[in-house]
C-alpha cells in the first residue's frame, strides 16, 4: 500500500505481534478468487477498502524466511523446536501473490488495533520474510504502470501544473524540465485551465487547473507520456 501526499511517497507497514514490521498479508480461501482475496485481506488487516489493487508479481523463491532471526522464527512458528521449524521450512513452500495500491495517505487512515506506520521509502527497516524485496519490485511495477494509472486522483480538486509535475517526480524518483513537462501536460485535452490562481506563493501566482475525468480516462487507455 503506497501512500502519496504533499510530495512524499510512503509505504504502509504493520507490526507482527507488536514487535516486527512487515507488509499487510493473509491467506487465500480454497474457493476464493485471487483478486477477491487481495481485497478481503487488505480490509481485514488495515480496514482499507474500495481502492484499486494491481497484481504485480508472484513470489515463490526458496529461503524466503532469510530475513528473520531465530527469536522471530520461534514466535512466528508458535515456539516450535528449531528442528520442527527447519522441517516445515524445507518441506513446505509458501507462494505469495503481490498486489500494490496507491492512495493519498492523508485521506486513507487504517482502522487498526495493531501498530502501523506510513514509512518513507528510504527509511524502510529490515522487514520479515522477503518483504523488502516485495517493496522494491512493487516500486518497479508502479513506475512501469504509471502511464495507465489514474494518479491524478491523488491531486487536490484544484492544482497547479507544478503540483502535477511533483506528483510524477516523487513517484518516479526523477526530475523533469519544467517547461517541457508542462508543454507535454498541456498537449492532453483533459486539463481545464481555471480563471483562478494559487495565492500566497513566493513566486508569481500560478494558474489553477482541474481534470476532465471523462477525457482523462480515455487518455489513460492509450497511456499518458511523461
From TrEMBL:
What keyword terms does UniProt attach to this protein?
Hydrolase
Gene3D superfamilies in the record, alphabetically?
Nucleoside Triphosphate Pyrophosphohydrolase, Winged helix-like DNA-binding domain superfamily/Winged helix DNA-binding domain
Q: Quick check: keyword Hydrolase in the entry?
A: yes
Q: Which domain of life is it from?
A: Bacteria
Identify the stretch annotated as signal peptide in this record: none
In this chain the NrtR DNA-binding winged helix domain maps to 152-210
- A molecular function GO annotation: hydrolase activity
Q: Which InterPro entries does UniProt cross-reference here?
A: NUDIX_hydrolase-like_dom_sf, WH-like_DNA-bd_sf, WH_DNA-bd_sf, WHD_NrtR
**Record's keyword annotation contains Hydrolase:** yes
What's the protein name?
NUDIX hydrolase
Q: Which organism is it from?
A: Chryseolinea lacunae
Amino acid at each position: 500500500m503506497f501512500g502519496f501526499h504533499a510530495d512524499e511517497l510512503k509505504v504502509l507497514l504493520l507490526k507482527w505481534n507488536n514487535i516486527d514490521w512487515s507488509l499487510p498479508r493473509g491467506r487465500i480461501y480454497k474457493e476464493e478468487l485471487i483478486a477477491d482475496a487481495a481485497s478481503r485481506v487488505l480490509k481485514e488487516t488495515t480496514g482499507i477498502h474500495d481502492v484499486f489493487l494491481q497484481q504485480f508479481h508472484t513470489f515463490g523463491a526458496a529461503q524466503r524466511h532469510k530475513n528473520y532471526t531465530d527469536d522471530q522464527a520461534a514466535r512466528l512458528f508458535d515456539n516450535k523446536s528449531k528442528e520442527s521449524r527447519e522441517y516445515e521450512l524445507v518441506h513446505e513452500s509458501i507462494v505469495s501473490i503481490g498486489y500494490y495500491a496507491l492512495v493519498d495517505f492523508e485521506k486513507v487512515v487504517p482502522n487498526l488495533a495493531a501498530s502501523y506506520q506510513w514509512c518513507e521509502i528510504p527509511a524502510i527497516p529490515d522487514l520479515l520474510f522477503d518483504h523488502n524485496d516485495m517493496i522494491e519490485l512493487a516500486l518497479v511495477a508502479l513506475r512501469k504502470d504509471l502511464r495507465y494509472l489514474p494518479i491524478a486522483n491523488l491531486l487536490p480538486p484544484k492544482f497547479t501544473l507544478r503540483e502535477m509535475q511533483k506528483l510524477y517526480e516523487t513517484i518516479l524518483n526523477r526530475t523533469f524540465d519544467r517547461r517541457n513537462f508542462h508543454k507535454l501536460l498541456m498537449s492532453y485535452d483533459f486539463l481545464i485551465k481555471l480563471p483562478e490562481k494559487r495565492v500566497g506563493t513566493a513566486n508569481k501566482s500560478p494558474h489553477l487547473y482541474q481534470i476532465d475525468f471523462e477525457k482523462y480516462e480515455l487518455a489513460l487507455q492509450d497511456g499518458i507520456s511523461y
